[in-house]
Every structure is written in C-alpha cells, then in structure tokens.
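Q: Here's a chain of 389 amino acids. Please give me its 3D structure as tokens.
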Amino acid sequence: MTTFKDFLAEELDESKLKHLEHAEDHVINAGHEGFSHAYHNLKDVHDKLTGKKNDTKVTMKYDGSPSVVFGRHPQTGRFFVASKSAFNKNPKINYTEDDIQKNHGHAPGLVAKLKAALQHLPKVTPKKGVFQGDIMHTPDDVHDNDGRVHFTPNTITYSAAKASAQGKAALNSKIGVAVHTKYNGNNLEDMQAEHGADVSEFGLHRDVHLISTAHRLDNIKYTPQHRERFAKAMAAAAAANKKTKPETYEAIKSHEIPLKTYINHTVRTGTKPSVEGFMNHYIKSHQKKVDSVKTEKSKASKTAEMETAIGHVQRNRAHFENVLNQHKHLQKAKDILAHTLSSSAEFDHSINGKKSKPEGFVVVRHNRPTKIVDRAEFSAANFNKVKAQ
C-alpha cells in the first residue's frame, strides 16, 4: 500500500501549494496513515477550541481568484508575479507588463489582475522572499452601497461596513490580496512551502488591501452540543478504523481517484455516497470511454476494462463500504468544526445573495495543509457554478 508520505510526494507535492485535500479524503488517499492524519488534524482543532495549546495552525480559506505567486526571485533578485505555473519546469515568470502580455495575452482577465499585482504588490512585499496569495479584488470589483462594501472574486461575495477597517481598505486600495503561503529556498523550482504565512513582515500601503488568513479563535462559539456531536462522530470514525484490516485499503488501491470523483459527484447532486452509487457512477464513466472509441476491437477492450473494474468493486463491496463509513464519520466531525469556526469572521459572506459561511479553513499540522470546508454548502455551489459556465 502506498504510504501517506509517498502519496503526498507523488500526487500532491506539498512543497508547492497546488492542491488541498479535504480532511475526510485522506482515508481514501492513504489508508490507516491517511485516517490518522485526518483524525489528528480534526482533534488538534477541537483541542485549540477548548483552550488546549498545540502547534497546529488554523487559517481562513479565502475564495479569491486568481492565485498569484509573487516576490523577489531567489536567483535574479527582481520582483516578479506569476500564476501557479511559477513552479513548472518551464515557468512563466513576469517581471514586466510586456512579459504578462506575452505569457497570458490569451486570458485578458488574468492579464489585468497580474498587471495590478505587478504594479502594487512591491509596495508592501518584503525585500526578500516568495509568497502566494489569492487576489480578492481590484477597483472595478469593489462596490459601495447601503453603507457597506462588497466584492465577489469567485463564488462568495465578501461584505464589510464601509466605516470598518476592512471596508475602508477595500474601497481605497488598488488591489486586495489574501496571502497564505511563503516559499523558502534558493531555487524557484525547488522551493518549499511554509503554509499559513505570517504577513506581519509585510509593509503597509493604502494601495494594497492586505488580508491576513490567520483566524482568531478567541471569539469562536463552540457550544457543548457541538462538542458532544464532534466527540460522537470522532468515536464512530475511530471505531470504524479500528475494525479495518490492511486488505481493505489494498482493495481500493487504484480506485482512489474514481472514488473521489464519485464523492464530488454526490456533492454536486446533494446525494449520499454509497457503494451502489459508486458502481453506477463508475459504469457510466467507463461507458463513456467505450462510446468514445470507434473500432470493435477498442470497444471490446474498453468493455473488458469496465467489467474488470466493476467486478472488483462488487467482490470487495464490504471493503469499499468500510472506507466510505470512515469517510462519513470524519466528514461529520469536520462539518461541526467548519460550522464552529465560521461563527466569527472579519467579513460577512453570501452566495447569490444568500448568507453563507466562509469558504472554509485550512488546518496546518506539521506544515501539511488540510481543508476544512462544508462541502454541502460551498463546494456544491462552486461545482455547480463552474458547471453552469
């Protein structure tokens, strides 16, 4: 079985922030080790909320767009901006507006945001270091009405009183950015991510609305009822994991991505994951592959692949049910924390005019980030927004 460490190295490459995993998905990714990672992430947050101290960071996840990498290039010393492609083998590094136009001219919206970042972020960025953040707004994105300031960088609309510090900063700045990651190293391609970056080393300038992702826990309302529900969900998750044998994770090996794709499908459709639902989704997915080829030989080959995959799931139904059961209880515990952490925030949040929670939170344990997101609310809205475009 692939270890959790190997999985991260091969699939996620946590040295760069390109993808974040939901806490409950770790059990699919890496079996017992994945479960342990998820369990202790959740427990650390619970402990912090109850006054116990640990080194785990809890940060706000902002729904900005695009994500931008910026700072002083470790080799040239010049200020640059880039998209996530900054860490590719052939990165698109932008030192000038001409570079931005050349590298990203096919995407006018991205060009405008990167040009704003190039012009204004040097005003606050430390003279050394590379950072990553989400652009939250430029002037055309900020609207002022009814004594409140609003901006919608992606799915969520962020709002604050016009007279508040955040409202004033959004209204008067040229760019808003939520910085979440710092990179350390002497070579851009080999830099290592420091998740939950401290923005206290940044300067101040009215042109830049610098948003800290640090999330204060002193005003959080963690009720006895929520604590009890959390403990119950965690106990159920632990009990399910204790009953699990190594062959369970061997049984789902090579099916992790289809299983997670199916779970995302249930988020979109508002349904509950089940082995039966997974098999139906798996069949449809394979049937598309069968239908996409033209020759009888190719169709027969694809059909055989489908029958093998579905037959494996049928023979190992109990193993798949076990993993989905652990996933369910971890998600229940996580959702309680997502709700609790959302009880205090610097901005009001809404989706399509309806009040919502923040996008979610990122828990950083041993410098490994994990998403704490209410998938039924934000992920479903985000998926369906993308689908509608």
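Q: Can you summarize the key feature?
A: Residues 170 and 209 are 6 Å apart (CA to CA).
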